[in-house]
Amino acid sequence: MELNLYMQTTFLMKNNLSYIYGRTDLIQIFILALFLSPTLSAQNSTSYSIKSHAITLESERALIVVDPSLTFLYVAGSDFNGFDNIRGAKFKATIDGNFSAGGELLERQSTLSPFLTDFSRKSDRLPGWGRFKTLSSLTDTDIPLKVDVARATGFIEWSEKGDKSEAQGFNARLANEAINFGWSHSPILLNRYDIPYPSAKLGWGNTNLNFDLRAFQWIGNVRGPLGSTTEPLFNRIHGALASGKYSSESWGVAMLFGSAKEVSQDTSNINNISAISISGFTLLHNIRLLWEVAKSSTTEEGFSWQLGGEYTQDNIKIGVNHYVTQADLYGGNGGTEWSNAGIPLGIMTGGNSKSSVIYAEFRNILLPKWIILSEGGTLKSTQYDYDLKWVKANISRVIIEDWDLCGRVSFEYIIPVDNLSEGPSGWIIHMGIIHGIINP
Length: 440
Fold this sequence. Notes:
By secondary structure, the chain is mainly β. It has helices at 2-12, 22-25, 28-36, 114-123, and strands at residues 45-48, 55-58, 62-77, 81-95, 99-111, 133-134, 146-161, 167-177, 197-205, 209-223, 234-247, 251-263, 273-284, 287-296, 304-313, 316-325, 339-340, 343-344, 353-363, 370-381, 386-400, 405-416, 426-435.
């Protein structure tokens, strides 16, 4: 049974570098469920629902749930309109109390917001997704960018079972996902909203302590020798991470050290990049103070840092955050970069950036019905020549909690500080259904 799960999940975890693979990969998650169902036991049961999980496969040893991932939003701006359409499926599985697995396959056609249009035109990448096929002109800046892109994420994990059925002791994980480090609002080195990438982890942990060793592979930004498929078109970046964390209810501290080097035919002129980050939090009554300090081997200036605070009361959270990144924090100048598919990991606007943000959220964690978010802030980025302010807000109503499906109305407005700036500006409204916000 575990062999079938491993083979199918490993196949799932291969991240698509081209939109071409998206249409065929969307059916793999249902094939996975069909392959797993005979491996459960003779007493297995299968159920279907539109009020809870769409497909549930259950036996004495295993539980597998499959749900659709659907987003369909009508998009309107000051002089344009379109759609944001994401479709796919996701699954979660637990086996014998020690093994767990999950994954999601998505395909997206979308009319982008003014900010994402500008960023994607400058970088040829869509944050969180990577390289895309354009459905509109990349050079005509008077119209919004329309993209076609696909993404696959997944993991398989083994962990020791504690005396109280809590995961503790050693654990191992194979995944194609973005890794998150620290508790800050916008982690500087590793952020869960980055473009997913393959990694292998060996760790140990208990209620308060956690130690991890990881090996990973990022996609480079330089085309290598042409091969028989699209995979070898771009150089690879191989690296390793080591992290440790202590956390309690009142405070926590974590440290990360990582090193990476680009793999190419001629590595004599390519230096590796090393980075270190320390992150922490302190809880004082209902106020949580958050901080992070980071530095890499490629920056000659001081530390990059961020400081923030959150006030939480019942279902309401209000927070402020400010970060500063130094020049060359993420590498460059011909050396290895701390990036995946050409986008800096952590804060996507790269080094030599500053941002301040204030945000508020209403959410009932135990019984979510309404989710209300608002945010406003400023951003300066030398790499992308940004100097702007923004305001955005959205109201979501939960439709099916197990599907992570909500109805939503949202608004975003980008205001350039300088009226002569060529950066993004304008407003956009989204209306429709969206997935992935109940349990982000």
